[in-house]
Amino acid sequence: MAEQPKIAEELKKMEYEPLLPVEKQLIGWSIGIGVAGLLVLWWVAQTFFPQGH
Question: What is the pTM (predicted TM-score) of this model?
Fold first, then answer.
């Protein structure tokens, strides 16, 4: 329990650091791969497991 206030204080002391361009690229690629993966899974589900309407 004594560690929590210390961590909060240290986080408040930290300076703001903007993201590096490579970090922005990694975030973009990760989101893109995630969205593409969801679309592929949706397509597979619709193609091979059609809903019975």
Answer: 0.66
